[in-house]
Amino acid sequence: MLDITPLTVGQMATHCYVVTDPSTHECVIIDPGDDAEYISEMVSRQNAQPTMIVATHGHFDHIMAAFALQLAYKIPVAMHPEDIFLVDRMRSTAQHFLGLSEIDPEPSITVALENRSSVAVGREQLVVVHTPGHTPGSICLYGKKNNVLFCGDTIFDEGAIGSVDHAYSSRESIRKSIKKILAYPESTRLLPGHGEETTVGRASAFHVQ
Fold first, then answer.
1. What are the two backbone dihedrals, phi and then psi, of residue 177, each rounded to the nearest 5 degrees?
2. pTM of the model
3. Domain range for 167
């Protein structure tokens, strides 16, 4: 079983997750949206050793601390290749939406995650599930032993779904992605990029299949 520590970071209240194998103390940092110092402090408190940073998608509010953490721990940053174009826009987009004048550089994406590939967390594995719609390269990460799905901005509590009002978004794609997510067992915990966690069972009540 993996230990999961949720952290809420940045002006957009993004959920960053530190996922640790307690037997090896190795951890993966999912969606470091901001405040690298705070994330590093929590990693240190757990005596954990980061091995990778994973972004569920390329929006700035999920990757703003990735460069600093990548530099500090000398670890790769992984995401789906179809969202790399969003990483290239990170600084300008963050300046536009947040009005910040000083923003870290964009992280270097060194690992491409494809559907059904896996991310090692110590002796455990998280399976990559490609769930496009909100962005072309949106992914979820499924931990079978923990019965948990890190779902980024694809699905939220009370039936909400990720916005599809961008030129690169797709309502049809996110509909198919939601259907894929709701095929998991009803007890599967859904840990989103914002807001409260839910389960597949609760989410299913809001989505007619």
1. -65, -40
2. 0.96
3. 3-204
